[in-house]
Design a protein that fits this description.
Elements: E1 3-6, E2 11-14, E3 22-31, H1 38-56, E4 60-68, H2 72-81, H3 85-102, H4 118-130, E5 134-136, E6 142-144, H5 160-166, E7 181-186, E8 204-206, H6 208-220, E9 224-230, H7 234-249, E10 254-260, E11 263-265, E12 268-269, H8 280-286, H9 289-297, E13 305-307, H10 309-326, H11 341-355, H12 360-379, H13 383-400, H14 407-412, H15 423-438, H16 442-454, E14 457-462, E15 465-470
Parallel strand pairs: 3-4, 3-9, 9-10, 11-13
Antiparallel strand pairs: 1-2, 5-6, 6-7, 7-8, 11-12, 14-15
Helix pairs in contact: 2-3, 4-6, 6-7, 9-10, 10-12, 11-12, 11-13, 12-13, 15-16
This protein binds zinc ion (ZN).
Residues 28, 212, 237 line the site of zinc ion (ZN).
Length: 471
Amino acid sequence: MLQVYNTLSRQKEAFEPLVDRQVRMYVCGITVYDYCHIGHARMLVAFDVIARWLRACDYQLTYVRNITDIDDKILARAQEKGIPYSELTEKFIACMHEDERALGIQPPDIEPRATDYVEQMKNLIQQLIDNGAAYSVENGDVYFAVDSFPGYGKLSGKRPDELLEGARVAVGELKKDPRDFALWKGAREDEPDDAQFEAPWGRGRPGWHIECSVMSTCNLGKSFDIHGGGQDLVFPHHENEIAQSEAASHQHYAKYWLHNNAVRVDDEKMSKSLGNFFTIRDVLQVYEAEVVRYLLLASHYRSPINYSDEALDNARHALERLYLALQGVEVAGGDQSGSNTDAAEAKERFSAAMNDDFNTPEALAVMFDLARRLNTAKAAGESVLASILGSVLYELGGWLGILQRNPTEALQSKHSAGSGLGAEEIEVLVAARTAAKNSGDYPEADRIREQLSENGIVLEDSREGTRWRRK
Ligand SMILES: [Zn+2]
């Protein structure tokens, strides 16, 4: 039984979709004014794995992830560059799709763009004005009246007085209450004409929050199962989405709210001002996409991830170990777990981990146990058993979107940082050293250890044999 942590209730809950066996999920996508960074990659991978697992559980999933293609940041950047904003957004949407393909992200079923839904946004705003939940002011802005919605604060857990303290009114804003937020931004003189739309309360453009309320409900209905996004969106973005949507529909908006945590760089917050800001394409220059994906899966989606070269090297090494186990094993398609108890147990434990709020680090730990069992079977020459165990390892990797390449090709790849030696070459050297030691040729064994050390490889001898790791 799948359990998910719901930000709304602040606890894990049994997952029960509104309609049996069907899941409708909306995730806040990217505001396309620049290249995607590693924080975006985390959101993309987290919800890709959630979508894959919902499908693995035989739910009929409709996954919607929007594109915010009109917004303050987009207009400011286009103005800086002196190009129409649509030229800027088209470019970065194409780049985003490229990055997604590289990271093995399965595309969402529907990918709505905000600019295609302006009419529906206007309708929702009109409905809120008619309900007394919103008001227009003389400069053409329309604000949501937070005071009119008693449930405001229920997602973020913020109290009304706390909200009042933190609220700021910017110059030129004509809010009745500092907590109110813009549904529509009246046209300003310095803003380009192509970003303005006609509306009953004056020319302008939609606010960011109303965009998501509309793109979600237009595609999934007024009530749906899962709403996801980065943790930084809980307040105010998602709190405001709930207020707008529920004030208009008088129905519960999303049942489960899932939020992924942030990426930190060398234990500091990632930010442009600190100069520790990595785009996906920067990282893919140095590391393989599968290594990046592995790193993002190695932490639970609700825990912070520390991004560093060391963490990436560890991810690379871990992935190599799994590929080494699969190398030379004949992998059959489909479910092979029925033919062996170890395989069946691994699959069961993997499912239990994923059903526990998508616990990917635990799921990976199960895969390592299976890889060890597979290595033992290979060493014992039990090729039928190895094939069964290998097939299950491959199947489990598929649910996480890793381990689907030809092992030999994956292991021979040099496109990664750190040691110039590939895992296969290292294994050959380690075996040669063991052979030299066993035959009493200690100078040769020392020479090989030295050679590996020069390439950044550390050896650890134990009764079970020699393990290696990258420094
Ligand atoms: Zn959103």
